Predict the structure.
Amino acid sequence: MDWSNLSSFLAVAKYGKLAPAARALDINHSTIFRRLKQFEEQLGKQVFSRHNNSYELTDFGREILQHAQGVELAMAKLERSVDGSDMRPSGTIRITTPANIAECFLPEYLTGFYKLYPEIKTEILVGDHHFNLDRREADIAIRANKHAPDYSIAHKLCEVPWRFMVSKAFIKKHGRPTTLSDLLKHPFIGSQGDLNLLPAFRWLEQQANENIQTRANNLNTMSYIAEAGLAVALLPADQKRAELIHLDIDVELEASRWWLISHPDLRNSLKIKLFKQHLIKQIQEDKRLQF
């Protein structure tokens, strides 16, 4: 059986449509359509039922999916094993990281890394979605979590406190709040989605629920809403920019922790070791993260 056909089946099963599945595999629409057709011809049965532009697994397709996922994990383990034995500083590293780290910190760190190791390339997967390291969806994850996953190799990079932030326009309009009781009278930016799970936003819901004017599921978006002068933002201090002002109002909130996470099978990969060493050094020396 052709592995490319099997990987196409897995991608369509994951995304439910051909276009996003093709983008994930970096192939075109006609190629994934052809591979899927070949896959069904090899099996002699339909694995998907088509409804408009969507693809839903048939009963047979769901049965095949379990076996295919096992093959995918085995292939990923083989790839990690090969990567782990590679002692040349070359190849590609897939890095997943939240938007703020990707946009405000990683470019500077990568500039120095490329000067040292020009044969190593990177792919940046931006977002808070937890890409599966077992399936090689990413090699390294930079995450702002309370704890790192138990299965992984993790290094705590730094701790980032939370701050109330407003714009100069906000202060010009409302004055500068100096106490918590005064601050809680103003409109706030609340959280949505997975951000609701963070202790800081649970606290905000309890203290200022009635004053939450707008909500967002992305910290960068919150920072720009605050920059526009619309409301107060509760943000990790790494979101600090020249356009935002920290308010000197202390509240005991649990700090965020930045973790550098990789799969144990890649512990001997030279390119992974070099990147991790470089990133740890850069973050330790970054004055923006010295709170």
